[in-house]
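Changelog note: in this version the structure field was regenerated for every chain. One regenerated record is shown below for reference.
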Amino acid sequence: SCCRSQASGKVMSGEEHFSSKKCLAWFYEYAGPDEVVGPEGMEKFCEDIGVEPENIIMLVLAWKLEAESMGFFTKEEWLKGMTSLQCDCTEKLQSKFDFLRSQLNDISSFKNIYRYAFDFARDKDQRSLDIDTAKSMLALLLGRTWPLFSVFYQYLEQSKYRVMNKDQWYNVLEFSRTVHADLSNYDEDGAWPVLLDEFVEWQKVRQAS
């Protein structure tokens, strides 16, 4: 393991000096000949750090690396991001997991991660997220914290929407933070996108029946 000191064989503390050279060598353990960590390398990387690819930690890490595309890390993204995290090996990154998770509890960081997820997850030749990707990303980001999430998910399942645009995506977060679970404070004259107006109507009909 790269964090062991040869003399004592003991695991060094995370304070051990960060090495760009070691960080680059670590990158090449996963990168292909095109100098990009692609799907295969990413799978091995996730295995080595002990995290499932769909774990939200991977999204927070990608945000920290400012990665442009889901499933890929470029050399530049890796070096810049891992340098800012001061990680040049698996153990150091694992020691940052609590820090990465804590970003989700910070309101402004979470908002940034949520907004980042839209561009990260969409096909780069599309301006919107296809609805299945949107649903799985929303489940990852809001599934545990938004009481109405499962109802909203059901609504999307049966709706005519095939894509979600950026404005709708941003507003879903705002809605989840400001509108009560019983929808009592929903302002129909507010500037909500039609998608959310229709969701509220749909849910009120269900509640009434």
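Spot check on this record: The two ends are 61 Å apart (CA to CA). The CA atoms of residues 47 and 53 lie 9 Å apart.
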